[in-house]
Design brief:
9 strands; alpha/beta; Rossmann fold; two-stranded parallel sheet; 7-stranded parallel β-sheet
Length: about 300
């Protein structure tokens, strides 16, 4: 099994976000070179200070992506959540750039785990269309599908609620078991597959434990050294908050996946609840438990403005 050429950088999409940032950190820890795709270099000074190579590009601009891909053999590709049509168009721009510049393989990181059979839920539809486009490109790739991200706790609104009220309130009932994963684990899995040139697989990335909401809260409490409670947020309330933050109608689109899980509990169990199981290419991969993840990110909780005010 051939190894990647470590003299060349890996291209990381959405490098300024939580997911891309995790890939950057994991790559640097492994001594890999990274080219970070950002929309505006002037707003990425923090990234530049870490020593990564910056390249400006926009997923909506195929020409800029071709420039970003010059001299690249491998990439970690993901696109921001939007309409299925918009997400597919962005992926197709990236794939065209890969083919035009000789990119050899890529990791496709999806926003969430997919349902194995077709359904009309928008995020699952988008996932399937993106995968179809990747397959049609003829390029070697591997798919990563996360369960649910612990990193949702680090969003400003969630941080405020956790540190001020002692509550984590995602739009999921406390009774639903979830094998929570993280951006860190997904990044480790992506780079492991690239380093091993293990393409062609379909990988469900999950945590080592299947936890109810109350069990999750207990793990978070242990990591923070303070008591945190879990509250399943009503979907109507969640939709209103998302609309207020991101615009009218966005909340309904974002909440549709959670409504699907509520209406199909057996599929929620299959997609969300099962702990990680080793697969070819990730035989030695060991996902991080919740308490350890919280301890690693404790500064983000305690060091937030909200935390300092306590």
């Amino acid at each position: 099994m051939s190894m990647i050429d470590r003299s060349k950088p890996i291209l990381v999409f959405l490098a300024g976000g939580i997911q891309g940032g995790a890939v950057l950190r994991a790559a640097q820890t492994r001594g890999l070179k990274v080219r970070a795709l950002v929309r505006d270099r002037r707003r990425a000074t923090t990234l530049e200070a870490t020593g990564v190579e910056l390249t400006e590009g926009d997923l909506g601009d195929a020409r800029s992506l071709r420039t970003a891909c010059i001299g690249i053999d491998h990439a970690v590709l993901q696109v921001p959540i939007g309409t299925a049509e918009g997400m597919v168009a962005q992926v197709e721009n990236a794939l065209a750039a890969f083919k035009a510049t000789g990119v050899e393989s890529f990791i496709l990181k999806l926003a969430s785990a997919s349902r194995p059979a077709f359904c009309e839920e928008p995020s699952f539809v988008a996932n399937q269309l993106i995968e179809d486009a990747a397959s049609a490109s003829g390029l070697p790739f591997a798919v990563l599908r996360p369960t649910m991200y612990l990193d949702n706790m680090l969003k400003p609104s969630a941080l405020a609620e956790i540190m001020m009220d002692g509550v984590f309130a995602p739009p999921i009932p406390a009774s639903q078991r979830i094998a929570w994963t993280s951006a860190d684990d997904c990044a480790e899995a992506a780079l492991t597959l690239l380093e091993r040139n293990a393409m062609g697989g379909d990988y469900r990335i999950a945590g080592p434990e299947s936890l109810t909401g109350d069990e999750l809260a207990a793990r978070v409490s242990a990591g923070l050294g303070r008591t945190i409670h879990y509250r399943g947020q009503p979907l109507a309330e969640f939709e209103r908050e998302v609309d207020q933050a991101m615009g009218e109608g966005v909340g309904h689109r974002v909440a549709s996946k959670f409504r699907y899980f509520a209406a199909h509990p057996e599929e929620a169990e299959t997609i969300l609840a099962q702990p990680f199981a080793p697969q070819s290419g990730l035989e030695s991969f060991r996902p991080m438990d919740v308490e350890s993840w919280v301890r690693i990110h404790r500064e983000a909780f305690i060091g937030s403005k909200t935390g300092q005010a306590l």
